[in-house]
Amino acid sequence: MKTSLTLARFHLLSVWNWRTSHLSRVIEAPAYFLFMVTGLNTLAAGTRIEGMAYDDFAYAGVLVVIAIRALFWCMGDVANDRKWGVYAVARTTDVSFPQYIGSILAANTLVASVQVAAILVLKQLLGRGNPVQDLRMAGLAVLVCLLTVLTGCALGFGINSYSKRDLMTSLFSLPLVMTAPLFYSLDDLPVFMRVLAAVNPFTYCVLLVRSPAADTFPTQAVAGCLVAALLVAGALYLASGRHELASNEQG
Amino acid sequence: MRSLTVDQITKLYRTGTEALSGVSFAVEPGTMLAVVGHNGAGKSTLLNIVSGLIRPTSGTVTTDARRGRLMWTPQRTMVDWSLTVRQNIELVARLTGTPGSSVDRVLELLDLDKVQSRQAEYISGGQLQRVQIGRALVAEAAVYVLDEPTAGLDPAAGELVMEHLRERAAAGATVLVSSHDLDAVERTASELVLLDEGRLRAHLPIQEFVRRAGATMKVNVVFAEPMPEPYPDRLDTALPPEWTLQTDADRTGLSVQVPLATGLRPVLAWLPPELQVQDLSAEKQSLRDVYLARYAERTPTPESVMVQQ
């Protein structure tokens, strides 16, 4: 635990030292949220989407966008650690694989939690809040972030080149956002979009985050998230034994 | 007691390149072992395997874990660019439970104290190399593995680093270091591993290697007066077969090249007593000389491996 926190501290120092390049993490989610609730909300014209106000619907969507971003940031962190020798230094100084994963989990989930908290506060400041329900949704979003951070870890161990990392981020981040019901309902979309949504794990994540605003227990969401958690655990198990301590990525 | 044993290490990369083939050697505590060879000989692969950074295709590396940890420095720059100089070194110190005073000491030793607050991306290449070395040296270890630590350093800094490594070895640590600076290697290291095309060619104490690799000594003699007849022809007739002789045109001096193992005494005994020697000097071939003469080119056919009997 102490070792994980020591490593996590250096991950956070890294974020702080490069705060200007991490500015997008501060700006993106609030900007999305403001755009949704003050702009696109007018399209909804007061109608309820999937039984909830658009503010609540978009709030959950933005929280899941934070989780998606956490996945790719975390993937990059692990890839950088393997490229820069941080992971190798840790492992050759007797830091175990779980301790290292713990450090990544602690640092990245903390950053994501701050982002989630910022959206929570912003929603209240805009006067569109339901504090108890919003807090419960935020809590579930942090759980989803834990899952995506672990997924990012597993993926990071498979990254051995900058081009691969770039490809992963640019190829998957937008489709993951667009094919999940983050900001619009899937009901009126073409069948292929609904098929894509069905295989997009973030569809189930956003259903889980929205569950406090829905009246029924989110059986489908919980099942989907459990399957995702099992897949992530399997991927991490595979990652634990199959990688070299340092990638051959230059620079 | 061996602190490090490398046993039949082979490394085959996915590209099909066989970087190492059946390399074996063992090192005792207190040894500073230099790994030398041409570019692509397999030095970095070997050191990366010993460090644990990459895995061998077959074979094993055993370190005596009872004696402590292993610290390493890679050949290519591997620092956390987002951390400061101090934070990069402090990270290792924290993970190894090393006190902060060691961080200060290493920063001062490597002349990094003035740039310790700068992020790694804003320092020079030589300073980056020092950061990497600092990461390896900040904690006490049983084994240090440094891949070309003096590359990119100015001569004084390179000398300082090699001397410091020698001191660590003298204190009981095992130091593996690769370097193309063979003069520095000869001054500081005690043993040598020579790799060629991924194969072990030699593992010997350095002076033993130099001797067995056929190093020579050139003895220059200046006489008080020009050599009288029948010299220098008479010198030729008494010359042992493995010696070569050159005389000055004005007969005032000569140079005789002998195997290094011969030593100076037989040369002095060979000089006729009637020739009065005014000045005498000897130039021994260095590790660098014998390496350049014999091993600088890749050997197309395997030679026998030179190891201590």
From TrEMBL, chain A:
Q: Does the keyword Transmembrane apply?
A: yes
Q: Which key words tag this protein in UniProt? A: Antibiotic resistance, Membrane, Transmembrane, Transmembrane helix
* Residues of the ABC-2 type transporter transmembrane domain: 10-210
Q: Name one Pfam family in it.
A: ABC2_membrane
Spell out the InterPro entries in the cross-references: ABC2_TM, ABC_2_transport, Nod_factor_ABC_transporter
The record's subcellular locations are: Membrane
List where the protein spans the membrane. Answer: 26-45, 57-79, 100-122, 137-160, 167-185, 221-239
Look up the coiled coil feature and give its residue ranges: none
Top-rank taxon:
Bacteria
Q: How does it sit in the membrane?
A: Multi-pass membrane protein
Q: What is the recorded name of this protein?
A: ABC transporter permease
Organism of this sequence: Actinacidiphila acidipaludis
Which lineage do the record's taxonomy fields give for this organism?
Answer: Bacteria, Bacillati, Actinomycetota, Actinomycetes, Kitasatosporales
UniProtKB/TrEMBL annotation, chain B:
Superkingdom assignment: Bacteria
List keywords of the entry alphabetically: Antibiotic resistance, ATP-binding, Nucleotide-binding, Transport
Q: Does the keyword Nucleotide-binding apply?
A: yes
Which Gene3D superfamilies does this entry report, sorted A to Z? P-loop containing nucleotide triphosphate hydrolases
Short name of any one Pfam family annotated for the protein: ABC_tran
Any one GO molecular function term: ATP binding
Membrane topology, from the record? Peripheral membrane protein
InterPro entries membership: AAA+_ATPase, ABC_transporter-like_ATP-bd, ABC_transporter-like_CS, ABC_transporter_ATP-binding, P-loop_NTPase
Q: Give start and end of each ABC transporter domain.
A: 4-222
Primary localization class, coarse = membrane
Q: Where in the cell is it found?
A: Cell membrane
What PANTHER family does the entry give?
ABC TRANSPORTER ATP-BINDING PROTEIN, ABC TRANSPORTER ATP-BINDING PROTEIN NATA
- So what family is this one in? Belongs to the ABC transporter superfamily.
Listed name of the protein = ABC transporter ATP-binding protein
Record organism = Actinacidiphila acidipaludis
Phylogenetic placement of the source organism: Bacteria, Bacillati, Actinomycetota, Actinomycetes, Kitasatosporales
